[in-house]
Amino acid sequence: MKDLTNPKWIKAKGILFLALGLAASGLLIAEVAGEIRLRIILLLAVAAWSFCRFYYFAFYVIEKYVDPSQKFSGLFACFRYLIRNRKG
Question: pTM to 2 decimals?
Answer without folding.
Answer: 0.58
